[in-house]
Amino acid sequence: NAGVIQTPRHKVTGKGQEATLWCEPISGHSAVFWYRQTIVQGLEFLTYFRNQAPIDDSGMPKERFSAQMPNQSHSTLKIQSTQPQDSAVYLCASSLGKNSDYTFGSGTRLLVI
Amino acid sequence: GQQVQQSPTSLVLQEGENAELQCNFSTSLNSMQWFYQRPGGSLVSVFYNPSGTKQSGRLTSTTVIKERRSSLHISSSQITDSGTYLCAISLSNTNKVVFGTGTRLQVLP
Q1: Cα gap B99→B36, rounded to integer Å
Q2: Are B42 and A33 inside 8 Å of each other by CB?
Q3: Interface touch A43/B99, C-beta < 8 Å
Q4: Which of A62, A75, B24, B62 is the least crowded, having the fewest Cβ atoms under 10 Å away?
Q5: Segment B15-38, tens digit of pLDDT
Q6: How far apart are CA B11 and CA B83, in angstroms?
Q7: Cβ atoms of A46 and A35 closer than 8 Å
């Protein structure tokens, strides 16, 4: 069990460029979550999939952020026209489902300059 | 208001002292979990403890659902225990996980 795998570990983009972050959940886990962590805001929920279907995206900034889960083995978080305030650690987690514990990946550290 | 509150915000101990970290939540939940994070590190699960008491080595977690609280007790603290401890709850109506702001623990030699 390799755990939740996130790639890349680090990403530097120029302001206005697009960034795509990848997450491979633990095999068999039906729930996938995306979070963003900054020193100022702490851990912020972004979005959540269950059985590949989007369940709750209430934390997603509506205009430039999008997330997809095209198959059970990976999810992507895409940020268009990145801004410096998007700089953060983006964390992905997976879970077997309701009433189960969550396992986090190591995160992708995004820096927008 | 904030659904998950942790106390204290920060804690400094001498090596060998005990620590008691608190997590209070204001909503009904499916589950609760404690995580540990080093600066710049990833979130590592310490306990998945939706109710009752669990122990692992020097760590003990007690969750009392009716009182909407959970605690993490660290006995005989070590320098390597330093880091941030976060509690997280899974909301019963949405299954979304909400985190507290964490307790930053520093253990000094």
Answers
A1: 12
A2: no
A3: yes
A4: A62
A5: 999 999 999 998 877 788 999 999
A6: 10
A7: yes
d(C-alpha A102, C-alpha A95), whole Å: 5
User: The tokens of A44 are what?
Assistant: 């912020």
A24 Cβ neighbours under 8 A, 6+ residues apart: A4, A5, A6, A7, A73, A74
Q: What are residue A84's phi and psi, to 5 degrees?
A: -55, -35
| Dihedral of the alpha carbons of B48, B71, B80, A34, in degrees to the nearest 10 | 50
**Nearest by CB: A42 against B94, B96, B99:** B99
- For residue A108 the two structure tokens come to 């992708």
A51 interfaces chain B, CB cutoff of 8 Å: no
Within a 10 A sphere around the Cβ of A21, how many other Cβ atoms?
A: 21
Name the residue in chain A with its Cα closest to that of B101: A42
Task: Give me the DSSP letters along A13-59.
Answer: E-TT--EEEEEEPPTT--EEEEEEEETTTEEEEEEEEETTEEEE-TT
Cα separation values, B53 from A38, A93, B33, B59, B70, Å: 31, 25, 12, 11, 9
Q: How far A109 CA sits from the closest chain B CA (Å)?
A: 9
pLDDT digits (tens, 9 = 90+) for B50-103: 899 999 999 999 999 889 999 999 999 999 999 999 999 987 777 678 899 999
Residues in chain B with CB shorter than 8 Å from the CB of A107 are 42
